[in-house]
Amino acid sequence: MEKIKQFMASPAGVFLYAVITGIIGIIILLAFLSMVLAPSVLPAALPVIIAFNCATGGYSLTEKSKTRQSLQKIPLGLIAIILTVAGCSTLIIFCPWEPLFEARRYLISGSSALIFTFVGAWVAAKSKSLNRSA
């Protein structure tokens, strides 16, 4: 148990936690919205779902990380890429008639994911600085 705690406190564990919770969040939101909304709305809602989970992933990575903000650009970009691919791939489960590789979907989802990952990280950095000054 102690080794698991040490791994989860390491930079790789923090990154893995942010990615896994983001993927699970995308799956849960897609499953819920597929029951509530018409299936044709899911592809339009996908960039919002991915952006929300990327913001929480960026926040989580920055909040739990002990490294400087300037060193986190690559992990934040990787979170955005991984969650975009995971979200667009998961959409095929709920909308099997949608093509797997649609460049416009990946472009819109990826750009919103990248923007909101850094917004989430920025909010976490501001929260950390406010907590230190208080």
Q: Terminal Cα separation, in Å? A: 34 Å
Low-confidence stretches: none
State which percent range the strand residues make up.
Answer: under 5%
What is the number of helical segments per DSSP (H or I, 4+ residues)? 5
Write a structural description.
The mean pLDDT is 89. Helix 2 runs antiparallel to helix 3, helix 3 (42-64) runs antiparallel to helix 4 (73-94) and helix 3 packs parallel to helix 5. The chain is built from 5 helices and no strands. It is mostly helical and 134 residues long. It has one domain (2-129).
Keywords:
134 residues, mainly alpha, 5 helices, 0% strand
Write the layout of secondary structure elements.
Elements: H1 2-9, H2 11-36, H3 42-64, H4 73-94, H5 103-133
Helix pairs in contact: 1-2, 2-3, 2-4, 3-4, 3-5, 4-5
What's a concise summary of this model?
The chain is mainly alpha-helical.
